Amino acid sequence: MAQEKDVNPILKQVLELGPTLVFFLMYLRMRDNSYTILGTEYSGFIMATVAFVPVLLIAMGILWYLTGKLSRMQIFTAFMVIFFGGLTAYFNDERFFKMKTTLVYGFFAVILSIGLVLGKSYLAFVLSDALPMAQEGWMILTRRLTMMFAALAVGNEIIWRTMSTDAWVKIETFGFPILLFGFLWAQFAALQKYMDLED
């Protein structure tokens, strides 16, 4: 296994979060236009979606080159973006890309639920090296995060089916990540007593 290399944390964040912001900016620029390619007319949203795929792959390639490693979550997310971006373009239907968010959050909720049924925390398996915490704390966090992912999946379904594309893009780009970050921050603060593992 390749040794992970040190990289500037700000640059790392730019490479991880930058593609989503680029998609948002491309959408804002292209949303009011339509584009005809090989006799088929595509909306600005679909063209921004198609352009997002290589942007994400380039950012991931740079990240892999700099760090020598990609997380399972990054690889899975990239696969989902490529797969549903391809379906969106092939069927000329923006609903596929919007459903991608539901499936990603739903997938995480299901995987964590399977671990809970088996009495395990898959979060601990992925994050325990970076965040030492007692097993009880991991189980609590896993249960709460499972419910959060399920709520985000349901929320995405409601939003894209009942609100405008503009609203969905803004919530997808900023709303969901801010909610998830705030939730995790609150959980880590609440679970501090499980992280005091001087042993």
From TrEMBL:
One of its GO terms (cellular component) is plasma membrane. It is a multi-pass membrane protein. It is found in: Cell inner membrane. Its main location: membrane. The keyword Cell membrane applies. It holds the Pfam family IspA. Keywords: Cell inner membrane, Cell membrane, Membrane, Transmembrane, Transmembrane helix. The chain crosses the membrane at residues 13-30, 42-67, 73-91, 103-125, 137-155, 167-188. Belongs to the YciB family. Plays a role in cell envelope biogenesis, maintenance of cell envelope integrity and membrane homeostasis. This is Inner membrane-spanning protein YciB.
